[in-house]
Amino acid sequence: MNSVPDIYRVLPEVVLTLTGVLVMLIDATLPPHWARRSLGWVAAFGTTFAIWTSLWQLSLPMGTGFSGTVETSAFTVFFHVLICGIVLVALLLSLDTLPEKSHHQGEFYALIVFGAVGMCLLTGAVELLLVFIALEISSIATYILAGYRKHTARGPEAAIKYFLLGSFATAFLLYGIAMIFGATGTTQIYEIARLVPTAQNQAFILAGLGLMLVGILFKVSAAPFHVWTPDVYEGSPTPVVALMSTAPKAAAFALLLRVVYEMLPMLRPVWQPLLWVVAVLSMTVGNLAALRQQNVKRMLAYSAIAHAGYLLAAFAGLGASGIAAASFYTAAYAAMNVGIFAVVTLVSGYDEKLPLINDYRGLIYRSPLLGSLLIFFLVSLVGIPFTGGFFGKFYSFAAAVGGGAIWLAIIGLLNSGLAAAYYLRLALATAQRPDDQASSAPAPRVGVAVIAALAMAVIATLVLGIVPNGVLHAAESGAHTLQAPPAEICAPLNPTVPQSQP
Questions:
Q1: C-beta of residue 116 within 8 angstroms of C-beta of residue 247
Q2: What's the mean pLDDT when you consider all of the chain?
Q3: Could you give the count of Cα atoms lying within 13 Å of 243 in the half-sphere of its Cβ?
Q4: Is 269 helix (H, G, I), strand (E, B) or coil?
């Protein structure tokens, strides 16, 4: 055991919790007629401080706290920084796109921050009951945010559908945890990994694995557990979609990595073929359905399903290579997806008066900045070199080939070519000369906060596409700590610290 205080192990979550509470308290003390926009800046500054505390955790020795329920490692720091970065961009995007007189604006910012608490806690939990609690914290916040536009029919419908199907999937996860507890007598992930090879009731463990996979794959909107995604994306406010399409998925993929590589690595012959099938289904179903869409948000929803398949292809990789590839792809997808939803938010507006692909015709003439950025993010989603999408797919498919899943990589490449059709259709519409109706549409207004959000997304996408070594090294460091046995729990996190030689 190490001497690090337990509170240091959850410092980012503590900062985010205090930030959310502070936003709620300030909101309650302000007169009803006062604007709440400043509360968004409070949430943004608190999230920025949470990123700093996450990076500070790299100076701590790897270890667990609170009776072995939560862990600090390079793996958790990687996803903490990623999730908090996504939350920061979503907050900045909301500052300039939410109407000044929108209802309960302070609660909107607080819910985003509280949701981030659950997401961060989910990536560091090494105890299954804490996993369930963290997942509920994250899910409840996103359920409410999905129905924020109560004046529209689609908003409450999206929230109800998301809540009902999400609760159903969470029940699968909880039943899976109960099965594994019944077979091993513990909910500690490290203990489960030690006891699984000698457990008497292997059928319970296999059933538990299957039920947990159903719950997790629902959260990442992988086929065939994707039916909620298009309707929820279409009905939710676009800044919320920018958040829910990236941050909860990053946390869910971190949990999936921990479950299959750290808790049940002995069952690789069972879970690997299952994830291959899900990857193929997600890529194919997502891309084929996206080809038929005229609504931009529904098209991007099916695109998200396909990208879940590309990422799952990395799970065919062997050991650290698969973990690092999946982590890198999660970061690359988050950067370009947040960016494209930021552009969609500005073009369509809060009430989404321009939802169709044809409405984007001539955007580059009306707003050269937004039109150019939209094409840039679409090119990255295709996977063109010098963007984050290229290296994300490259590392994912390379991990699949390294793990012997050559046909999986080939199917992924064919699907990437199929996806280029609908991405380029939107890009061509953006670059076409506008007709009379489109040319009369006003150019979207771009505020300072949105410019900062777009700049962060663009820089991250370019860095991941031009100089990816830094992020890839962080992903590889996290992969090695994820596979570390409990006996190595006190190893230093910083790999650059020289070790004494005998």
A1: yes
A2: 89
A3: 29
A4: helix
